[in-house]
């Protein structure tokens, strides 16, 4: 019962410990969105001594040691670091423990008279959790010189206590459990004890760094077991008669009458009495345990390389002159060389945006009808007091302000999960998710803060919540600047991992069954011995990126990929004025490739990096920016004309608001229809629009989509818009009276007619002269009375279509009597 209770406590403790450590690991990582821990494997071998405590020791404390009876221990372990403090370990080992009354007890004591001994070779399998007292941060080669830790977990022991016989029985070691030395294993007694035992290990240790991969450590672990039979001693004697003819069992059960101690060969005093059935043999109240003290040699197996020299992702290119980053690649071009990169310059125009500051603005991407970008603009809210610099933070600016290049006040993305870190770039995947590249500027013990990708939930327009890291994130290289296909199943990104062709390369990964495949290098058509950065996958499937390794103008240039059968076969430089002798990168383009945005640190900007708007004035029908000068067409002005009519009556409606939104620039223009229900807008080809009417008392209508992409030579488009009234039915009620006398007219039958609909409604006034009916608000009605004594004529009722929100109307009817 005691053993079962111990096992339950052990399991509860084990799961509680790992639950707490798991939560602790998550909490500690929460403070570091980009943890720098190298999650490596390690192999450990160890050796040392073991010491038993139980029925044959003076003290049952795990902190006492009997150096006369220590045994050896050896073993090995596989370790996996999970976080900057948590390590899990699978361990196997052998320990020898022993005990001997003759060597530990004083002459004349009960224990001396008892004269029992044992030896036990324990084989153990352990699952251990280690908590480092001082955190491990960075690559494994950057770990601390001294790492103290504590540990616990669960151990399964394979126990086999043995005893040595006297010379009369051969002076050999025999297994004690099969002998049933306390009467176990018969039909009238309890069963034999189990030799497979659970144990609870608790320990502490310290590792000393010797080389980048090698540690030497010292560890002390005590194991509280679920058995009192490591030493084959627990309860009471059963007497020689119990064993019948099994003389070996009787001899091993009671050794009090032996005159020579079998382990030491020394003479001993034989007591005058002999133990009988029921006499105390062991304590029977506390389980046995043992300690291991070991010297450990630990070798790190990780293939992760130490951080490389700074790649482009980590270097500063915040200078007007590229003296530090690409100085060796900036050169003067001859007239002939310049002509190669100037052949597209009449097709493009660029402008520096009003959102740029004396700081740096970079990495624009489309987000909710605007741009999201990163900036270190002077902002007290996002200021690092230690470095006395502003953090790079995400800001949002609406497209319609940027398109007109009007001064606007960008909005900071002020989400708690983003605080305290540099924000490099963000890409909106869909309405609910965004992926952000972030890196820490203040991680201790780390030379390089690696870029990492985080999938975030969009809770509101500028409210994000951290969801999870992407599986590619690593402590030894950066993953940065992702771009996605329209369906969200293909992702391109930048990395400086070890298998790259140069500094940074572009990789692709595909989502398969909800998981991202291992990153694939795009190969030497795209990647070079230089740096390739800032990929952008246009909705039409064209990949744009920046590189300093291809034939270019200097620094980073922007390139367009050329594909055949979905394989990139070549790349083309976009030329001037997009590219310059400095760093130009991060190009994004709208759906029709007429407007784009990119980053540059060229001379003439406002700060370090600035964001520029690209206007594509001429484009080929292929929609490739680098196609030859054939089949080009310009942006042309057009007219959009139409009218708004009632969905019910099909009649034109005056004074209705009509809103036209340019989906490329997010610009919104609103006008009212004229007295004939007509409207007119100035538009252009190469754009996508949506138009919708709105008015008080009418339903909100779904926007009508209008595309002028690919149109040229067309001066005018026409579009009719429908709008539907909110309230179709109106309750008409009132009294019927005599026009001359004012008397109430009872039971008078009235006939309401809508001539356009050929509809007749018959209504009769009640005993108090009241009538009530429902009519369509947008129809015109008149009524007449067929009662004798009243003039036979048509009576008109008010035009209810003028009252857009009315649901009930009181209308008293006064009938004119005949003369």
Looking across the biggest beta sheet, what order are the strands in?
A: 1-2-3-4-5-8-9-10
Shape category: elongated
Number of H/I helices = 6
Q: How far is the N terminus from the C terminus?
A: 115 Å
Radius of gyration: 44 Å
Largest sheet: 8 strands, antiparallel, barrel
Protein architecture, described:
The protein has 819 residues and is mainly β. 7% of the residues lie in helices and 41% in strands. The chain has six helices and 50 strands. The strands form twelve sheets. It has an eight-stranded antiparallel barrel. Strands 22, 23, 24, 25 and 26 form a five-stranded antiparallel beta sheet that branches. The longest helix is centred in the first third of the chain and has 29 residues, at 2-30. Mean pLDDT is 83; it is low at 1-8, 20-36, 316-336 and 443-447.
SSE layout and pairings?
Layout: H1 2-30, E1 41-53, E2 71-81, E3 86-100, H2 101-104, H3 110-114, E4 117-132, E5 146-158, E6 161-164, E7 173-175, E8 196-209, E9 214-225, H4 247-253, E10 289-300, H5 335-341, E11 348-352, E12 361-367, E13 370-375, E14 383-384, E15 389-390, E16 393-398, H6 399-403, E17 411-412, E18 422-428, E19 433-439, E20 452-460, E21 463-469, E22 479-484, E23 490-495, E24 505-512, E25 515-516, E26 520-521, E27 532-537, E28 543-547, E29 557-564, E30 567-573, E31 584-589, E32 595-600, E33 610-616, E34 618-620, E35 632-634, E36 637-646, E37 657-662, E38 668-672, E39 678-684, E40 688-694, E41 704-707, E42 716-723, E43 729-738, E44 749-754, E45 759-764, E46 770-776, E47 782-785, E48 795-796, E49 808-810, E50 813-815
Parallel strand pairs: 36-42, 43-49, 43-50
Antiparallel strand pairs: 1-2, 1-10, 2-3, 3-4, 4-5, 4-6, 5-8, 6-7, 8-9, 9-10, 11-33, 12-13, 13-16, 14-15, 16-17, 18-19, 19-20, 20-21, 22-23, 23-24, 24-25, 24-26, 27-28, 28-29, 29-30, 31-32, 32-33, 34-35, 36-39, 37-38, 37-40, 40-41, 43-46, 44-45, 44-47, 47-48
